[in-house]
Amino acid sequence: xxxxxxxxxxxxxxxxxxxxxxxxxxxxxxxxxxxxxxxxxxxxxxxxxxxxxxxxxxxxxxxxxxxxxxxxxxxxxxxxxxxxxxxxxxxxxxxxxxxxxxxxxxxxxxxx
Amino acid sequence: xxxxxxxxxxxxxxxxxxxxxxxxxxxxxxxxxxxxxxxxxxxxxxxxxxxxxxxxxxxxxxxxxxxxxxxxxxxxxxxxxxxxxxxxxxxxxxxxxxxxxxxxxxxxxxxx
Lengths: 112, 112
Prior knowledge:
A: 7-stranded mixed beta sheet
């Protein structure tokens, strides 16, 4: 029933590891997003995909690689994790330009 | 470049008070503006979405207004309750982009 679901909810890992976060939406939306919320709670966009095409890449280090196998999924893979990557990562979706967002519940990533 | 500011950063009120949260943005060319609520450790819940052609939207005790020309939106909460305690985020969808720009949020505490 969950509209936008992310897994895992919590992720604790060591520096240098590679990890993935998965996102799925069952709303039939065309556009999906990844946002990062830092320790000061500020939300900033990382990537946006529209119909599986990358349309936004906001100067994110190339250690971060999004992948959209289909319209309903947008996964985030992170290579060589660093301490500064610790944050909450939110997935969201929207029907199209000019439509509101629906957010997932977030993935709290802690790099130790 | 769109910038979104929310004032105040934090607010404590006794239960039952009516209150106003403010959001201002620098570029009036927008598709819409969305107000979200975030509870500690949780995801974002959409409260109200105002399209650029609209002046206000209402849902229950919440009323959001939009003045595009002056770059302002307000979220009015009537008869506040302790359950309204959360961080309220304003997000602006600029025209010609596929992303929301978020404000820094207002942390609201309603005292019983």
